[in-house]
Amino acid sequence: MSRHRGEKERSPLRSRLEALNTARELAEERLPDETLAPVTEVLNRASTRRSLSAEHTVVGFFGATGSGKSSLFNAVAGQEVATAAARRPTTSEPLAGVWKPAGSEPLLDWLQVKKRHLMDAPPDGNSRHHGADQDGYGGLILLDLPDFDSTAVEHRQIVERLAGQVDVLVWVLDPQKYADAALHQGFLRPLASYGAVTMVVLNQIDRLATREVRPVLDSLKQILAQDGLDGVAVYPASAMTGAGVEELRTAIRTVVDRRRASTERLLADIDASAAALADGSSGPALPAVPKEAKQTLSEHLAQSASVDVVADAVRKSYRRQSHANTGWPVTRWLGKLRRDPLKRLNLDRRDINPAVNRSSLPEPGPAQRAQADSAVRTFADAAAGLAPEVWRGSIRRAARASAPELPDALDQAIAGTDLGSNRKSWWWPVIGILQWIALAAAATGALWLLGLAVLGYFQFDVPPAPRLEGFPLPTLLLVAGVLLGIVLGLASGLVARVAAASRAAKARRRLRSAVAQVAERKVVVPVEEEIHRYNSFREALAAARGGTR
Question: Tell me: the pLDDT tens digits for 178-195?
């Protein structure tokens, strides 16, 4: 196989490993450790296996006590390598038969196989093929493993470890125990996703009558299909008579010749890990957070932050200032006896520095806090959509991550909003001047009339007051001044109410905008980041499974 071909074949593996690692990283602190730990183990195992010999294919023989596994191993190897005897178990530690040993030592060290037998002939015993890699013999490592049902615990541990390390799994069954639940439930069913690198051998068919072989094979295939291994090749064989051994050799030789077993094994590992990650944690892609959900969140947070209270204070403050600037000069001072509502809330400052400004609004009560919490939860649920429960939980946590800081952040936003309380209306000076003119006219008329009355009281000759259209001028000044003051007061009061409502509406919009910015920063952005993380997790899983990332 050319180097170019090897790189081309390994490239998808590398991409899928990277995608699986990305999915694992994105799932950290979201999925439980017991779900992520096997994925990390697969990634570490894949990294190690890829760093070791790519020219060797590790084929492991797995079987139960009495299945004739070691005898079949010897038959396939063409030599008496493994111990086969009546005593059970005959294999206490892994034994390797190695063809083309160069470069195999680090791989066998990683497999923790100490017993190694260097083969001096190809597995079919034909010496003319010795060393001929193109015929599929060079690079083969056959492993004879302990019985998986051995009474020795360490034997089962060895089998479980190597079942996760070898490139090809060959399960050697016998006619008596081929349906054993321990085999199928403990190994074959959990390893169903490894069908591409799994072979099943029904050994000891010499113990069956010829007419019984086919029914037993059909029964075995049916059980394997129930295990999820319906596509796995099943080879009938007999280590005693040699029946079917050559077919098994050919199948193994074909696998070795393709030089893809290790890659296919790792791809199967990736598929299994991706399936484990996806189980209960992958659902439909989530769209962007709906605009309506953001608006609803902002509205509820605005209510909890007393935006309406502040807007009403702006309205009252404006009317107070209007009266102070346009009211009847004689009674203006009475309005100053009432404290400015904005000053009472500590919102009348000219310096706008959100970093240090705080209002004197009452601390949020239980009802307000509950309203804010409910708004955040409702928003998180709307944003989470149809995401799996584990990711819905992470989205909720992201939404509530800043919950302790939210009241203070909202208060800062309120205190840092320019409410326009220090801006005077253009009509105030105009009305104010007219009020002073009206007062001056009324005062002049009153003093004039008073002077005439005093002079008349003391019997002075008083010249007649000038008249205008038949009315005494002093009287006209007094009446006109008083009437003008009343009209100006009523008109300015009406205008002040309209202008105060307008200013309160502007302040409310600014306050809601400030609250919306807090909601965006403290709630929306973390939720959107978590949604992006979830969608990226889905894409990485799809890529790990061989789809488009």
Answer: 999 989 998 999 999 899
- Contact by Cβ (8 Å): 213, 237: no
**Are β-strands 471-472 and 467-468 bridged in parallel, bridged antiparallel, or unpaired?**
antiparallel
Separation CA 543–CA 303 (nearest Å): 45
Report the C-alpha gap between 165 and 109 in whole angstroms.
12
Other Cβ atoms within 10 Å of 115 Cβ, number = 16
CATH superfamily assigned to domain 55-258: P-loop containing nucleotide triphosphate hydrolases (3.40.50.300)
Cα–Cα distance measured from residue 363 to residue 405, given in angstroms and rounded to the nearest whole number: 13
- Cα–Cα dist 75/57, whole Å: 19
User: Cβ contacts of residue 520 below 8 Å, gap of 6+?
Assistant: 294
Q: In the structure, what pLDDT confidence band is assigned to residue 403 with cuts at 50, 70 and 90?
A: confident
- β-strand pairing of 233-236 with 140-144: unpaired
List CB contacts of 530: < 8 A, sequence separation 6 or more: 391, 394, 395, 398
C-beta separation of 188 from 224 below 8 A: yes
- From the number of C-beta atoms within 10 Å of its C-beta (0-12, 13-18, 19+), residue 549 rates as middle
Residue 478 CA: distances (Å) to CA of 252, 257, 446, 457, 481: 122, 120, 6, 21, 5
Average pLDDT over residues 338-366: 63
Q: Domain ranges in the chain? A: 1-54+260-279, 55-258, 291-544
pLDDT digits (tens, 9 = 90+) for 123-135: 555 544 444 344 4
- The gap between the terminal CA atoms of the chain, to the nearest Å, is 29
Give the whole-angstrom CA distance, residue 531 versus residue 106: 44
In 164-260, which residue ranges form alpha helices assigned H by DSSP? 181-183, 210-227, 245-258
Residue 422's pLDDT is 72
Q: What's the maximum distance between 2 C-alpha atoms anywhere in the chain?
A: 160
Instruction: Tell how far CA 311 is from the center of its chain.
Output: 38
Strands lying side by side in the sheet with 95-98: 115-118, 95-98, 140-144, 57-63, 168-173, 198-202, 233-236
For residue 248, pLDDT over 90 is answered with yes
Contact between 159 and 148 under an 8 Å Cβ cutoff? The reply is yes
What ranges make up the beta strands (E) of 7-119?
A: 57-63, 95-98, 115-118
* Total-model pTM: 0.77
